[in-house]
Amino acid sequence: MDPTFRSSRLIDRARSGLLVVDLQTKLLPGIEQSEQIVANTDRLCRAAELLNVPQTASVQYPQGLGPLEARLAERFPTPDEKLDFSAAGCASIAQLAETHNLTQWIVVGIETHICVLQTTLDLLARQLDVFVVADAVGARGDRDHRIGLDRMQAEGATLVTTESVLFEWCQTAADPKFKQISAIVREG
To answer: What are the pLDDT digits (tens) for 102-130?
Structure first.
């Protein structure tokens, strides 16, 4: 087998970006598993920074729904503000995609069946590869969460976990950043 071959279906840090959708203070208390979602998102953000993966965030109607969660607000001081449920039209996404030639998006956030779903479907419609991090997205109810994940997968999104993203970004234990990524993995 050719050791240089790499499947185009794997996440590639050179052509992927991380999108954080609406992890806002007023929305989080009603979201099942919100602490885990924020913790996993934080882990992904730190790894993205370490591995030079572009990242951006959106907020839905921040005047009413508040700012990003505190840990994320430090990382994204000026998230894209939106009224549309989909974040796919946000300026930072287009800018990062063009600047870095991104063809893949790793999507995290809330709510699975509303903003995450609509964002994912819009990105897929642009012929982009979308990886939805199942343990870093959530909704107020389990049924909405499960149906949202099922629908995104049926429409062509790939469901992944935080740990799988971290190791696909790293690609090899020979990577100089492997020990740091491994430490982030062990936090989970």
So the answer is: 999 999 999 999 999 999 999 999 999 99
What does the pLDDT look like over 74-112, one tens digit per residue? Answer: 999 999 999 999 999 999 999 999 999 999 999 999 999
How many percent of the chain have pLDDT more than 70?
98
- Angstrom distance (rounded) from CA 172 to CA 136: 23
The 3-state DSSP class for residue 137 equals strand
By DSSP bridging, strand 16-21 and strand 80-82 are unpaired
CB 94 within 8 A of CB 56: no
**Which helix (H) or strand (E) is 92 found in, with range?**
helix 91-100
The span from the CA of 60 to the CA of 81, in Å, is: 6
Largest CA distance in the chain: 55
- Please name the residues in contact with 79: beta carbons below 8 A apart, sequence gap of 6 or more: 20, 56, 57, 58, 59, 68
The answer to whether the pTM exceeds 0.70 is yes
Q: Would you give the end-to-end CA distance of the chain in angstroms? A: 33
Can you tell me the distance from the alpha carbon of 63 to that of 81, in angstroms, rounded to the nearest whole number? 10
Fill in the DSSP letter of residue 141.
S
Classify domain 16-186 at the CATH topology level.
Answer: Rossmann fold (3.40.50)
d(CA 131, CA 107): 6
Neighbouring-strand partners of residue 19: 56, 107
